[in-house]
Write a structure and sequence with these properties.
Helix content: under 10%
CATH architecture: 5 Propeller
Order of helices and strands: EEEEEEEEEEEEEEEEEEEEEE
Structural class: mainly beta
Largest sheet: 5 strands, antiparallel
CATH superfamily: Glycosyl hydrolase domain, family 43
Number of helices: 0
């Protein structure tokens, strides 16, 4: 459905859609998915324009299981087109153990991912020499390409002592299997990543100016949720943690004057004019009713990404 509405930045765009994800296909079509308020499945919508996604019809393309794995906490789906097929990467738990969160994959070989048939491929497969990936709470997987290689980045909590959500990276052998062992990419080492919980999660990659920027989210999911950033040279060994530099301060956080609270879990796309756009979720109220994780009022918003003279992105509410 074509929609010529003008984009409006830093205000609710699609209501009650956390962990928003937008993909622009090779034919120019925009697709949108996100965590649903009930965490009970995966829905897609599409439009010829980015603005049009706000009013586009939403289709549930997969529903959670009644029991066992993938029966609870269906979170943060991402739609990718790899090797001529559609894939959705998402996380899910077990209603008998709701924090048994693991990363799963759906595949669609049809041309249209909304009307096509989706097949469960199971949990993302570890590499042959790494039995340790996804052995604990694992979620928020994303995929990006650099110089012909595909990389899988995700959040996983360590399983001993205090639960700490780290970011890990591995090269992919196929859309459903890792090629290399997991590498620790980032851990919550700063105070702004440790409010409520020690968290690095929600990674997403942006490639520009010979650099790769990975934004991610830190702290608990309330008003202290914020966005941090990692930077590497595109020519570097991306599986070497020393190739990445973590920004000392968050690159995006709560703005009380605009009533934008707890911005985080973003992705990037471009509008029809070629502008870089950050798609993120945030709240519009400082006082959260109930558990922040189950409060549905995290809304998808848009921000135009500006660029500094040194080639780094600037995320500003202005």
């Amino acid at each position: 459905m074509e929609n010529n509405k003008e984009l409006k930045f830093n205000e609710p765009w699609i209501l009650q859609r956390a962990d928003p994800y937008v993909y622009r296909h090779t034919d120019g079509t925009y697709y949108f998915t996100a965590s649903l308020p009930a965490y009970d499945g995966i829905a897609l919508r599409h439009s010829e324009t980015l603005a049009g996604l706000a009013d586009a019809e939403e289709t549930m393309i997969w529903h959670k299981h009644e029991s066992g794995i993938m029966s609870f906490h269906i979170w943060a789906p991402e739609l990718h087109y790899l090797q001529g097929k559609w894939y959705i990467y998402y996380a899910g738990g077990d209603k008998d153990d709701i924090w048994e969160i693991r990363p799963y994959v759906l595949e669609c070989q049809d041309e249209d991912p909304i009307t096509g048939t989706w097949v469960e491929k199971g949990m993302m497969e570890r590499s042959a020499d790494d039995p340790f990936s996804f052995t604990d709470f694992s979620l928020d997987a994303t995929v990006f390409e650099n110089k012909g290689r595909y990389y899988y980045v995700w959040a996983e909590k360590v399983s001993v002592g205090k639960k700490i959500s780290n970011l890990y990276i591995a090269e992919m052998e196929s859309p459903c299997k890792l090629k290399t062992a997991q590498v620790l990419l980032a851990t919550p080492c700063y105070d702004w990543e440790r409010i409520g919980f020690w968290v690095n999660e929600g990674p997403f990659a942006l490639k520009r100016n010979g650099k790769i920027f990975i934004t991610y989210s830190g702290s608990e999911t309330g008003i202290d949720y914020c966005v941090g950033m990692l930077t590497a040279d595109a020519d570097a060994d991306l599986l070497d943690p020393n190739s990445w530099r973590k920004s000392r301060m968050p690159v995006l956080r709560t703005n009380e004057a605009l009533k934008i609270y707890g911005p985080g879990h973003n992705c990037f796309t471009q509008d029809e004019d070629g502008r870089d756009i950050m798609v993120y979720h945030a709240r519009t109220e400082a006082e959260i009713q109930g558990n922040p994780l189950y409060n549905p009022n995290r809304h998808a918003m848009l921000m135009e990404v500006k660029w500094n003279e040194d080639g780094t992105p600037r995320f500003s509410y202005e």
